[in-house]
TrEMBL record:
Protein name per its UniProtKB record: Phosphoribulokinase/uridine kinase domain-containing protein
Localisation: Cytoplasm; Nucleus
Single GO MF annotation: kinase activity
Main subcellular location of this protein, as a coarse class: cytoplasm
InterPro entries reported in the protein's UniProt record: P-loop_NTPase
Gene: TDEL0E04970
Annotated keywords: ATP-binding, Cytoplasm, Kinase, Nucleotide-binding, Nucleus, Transferase
Length: 293
C-alpha cells in the first residue's frame, strides 16, 4: 500500500531521485538530447494536471540552469479540416471518426518536432497547440504555435496512449471475443507502431515514465465527463454529456487491448517508471517504482 501521499508528492519524490542522476551521467560533448518525462494515463485521470505541475516544479528547481518544455501528444492532432478528410478516407471505421486514436495526429509534424528535440542542435522549433473546444468540441489546431529554443534539457510529454504496445499478430485482434470493434482496431493497431517507434521505443530517447493505473478503467467515463463540463463552463463550447459518452466509446477498445499490459509492464520509461494506482477520486492507493537502467 502507498503511504498517505498525493500524486504530486509521489511524482516529485520520483523525479528528485532520477533527474539529478541523469544529469550527472549526461555527457554534453557526446549527446545533447534532452531527458523525456513521459506521463500516461486514461483521459481525466490527472496526467495533464500533473504534467503542468511537473513542468512548474522543474522550472522552480533548476531555474535558468536548465531548459524545460511541456508538450502533449494531443497538440499534434490533425487540423479540423484534415481530420474531416481523414475520417472520410476511413469512413467504414467508426473509431477514426474524429480526433483521438492513433492515426488522427499529424505524424510528419510530430516526427519533425521530436527529431529536432533529440538532435539538440542550436535552433528553434515551433510546437503546435490544439484547442479542444473549437467546433463544438470537435477541436482544431491553434493558428499560432509555441516557439522553443533548442537545445533542451527536459521535455515533459503527456498522452493517454503513451506506452501502449501494438499487437504483432492481426488474428489476435480480429478473433478477440472480449474486444469491442475488433475489425476496426486492426487499422488503429497498425497506426500505433509509428508512435511506439518514435517515442517510447526509440533508442535515441532517454526517459522517465509515470503511469496512472485506474482501479477500474470505466472510471474514465466519469473523469472525462467532469473535464468536458468544466471546459463548457470556461469556454462556452464543448461536447454534450451524451457526446462525451460516445467519444469515450471510441477509445475504449484501446483500453481493452493495451491498458493492462501498460500497467503491468512498468516499463514506460527507458530509465525508470513510477506506476501510481488511483481510485475514482484520484486518490493514490499504491505506488510502484521500477528502475530499468
Amino acid at each position: 500500500m502507498a503511504s498517505e501521499k498525493s500524486v504530486l508528492e509521489h511524482t516529485f519524490k520520483f523525479l528528485d531521485l532520477y533527474v539529478p542522476q541523469w544529469f550527472e551521467k549526461r555527457d554534453l560533448s557526446q549527446d545533447k538530447s534532452p531527458l523525456f518525462i513521459l506521463l500516461s494515463g486514461p483521459q481525466g485521470s490527472g496526467k495533464s494536471y500533473t504534467a503542468q505541475f511537473v513542468y512548474k516544479y522543474l522550472l522552480e528547481k533548476y531555474g535558468e540552469s536548465k531548459r524545460v518544455v511541456q508538450m502533449s501528444i494531443d497538440d499534434f492532432y490533425l487540423t479540423h479540416e484534415d481530420q474531416k478528410e481523414f475520417s472520410d478516407k476511413f469512413a467504414d471505421n467508426k473509431l477514426l471518426q474524429g480526433r483521438g486514436l492513433p492515426g488522427t495526429h499529424d505524424i510528419p509534424l510530430l516526427s519533425k518536432c521530436i527529431n529536432a528535440l533529440i538532435s539538440g542542435e542550436d535552433s528553434k522549433v515551433i510546437l503546435p497547440q490544439y484547442d479542444k473546444s473549437k467546433f463544438n468540441g470537435e477541436g482544431d489546431r491553434c493558428a499560432k504555435g509555441k516557439e522553443v529554443t533548442l537545445p533542451l534539457d527536459i521535455v515533459v510529454l503527456e498522452g493517454w496512449f503513451l506506452g501502449f504496445s501494438p499487437i504483432l499478430e492481426r488474428q489476435e485482434i480480429s478473433t478477440n471475443p472480449h474486444l469491442q470493434s475488433s475489425a476496426e482496431m486492426v487499422q488503429v493497431n497498425a497506426n500505433l507502431f509509428f508512435y511506439k517507434d518514435m517515442l517510447w521505443n526509440n533508442p535515441e530517447i532517454k526517459s522517465l515514465g509515470i503511469v496512472f493505473a485506474a482501479d477500474d478503467i470505466h472510471d474514465v467515463y466519469k473523469w472525462r465527463l467532469e473535464q468536458e463540463q468544466a471546459l463548457r463552463k470556461t469556454t462556452g463550447e464543448g461536447m454534450t454529456d451524451e457526446e462525451v459518452k460516445k467519444f469515450i466509446d471510441r477509445y475504449f477498445p484501446c483500453y481493452q487491448l493495451y491498458y493492462d499490459d501498460l500497467v503491468s509492464g512498468e516499463d514506460l520509461g527507458s530509465i525508470a517508471t513510477l506506476t501510481l494506482g488511483i481510485d475514482l477520486q484520484r486518490t493514490v492507493y499504491s505506488a510502484k517504482e521500477r528502475c530499468i537502467e
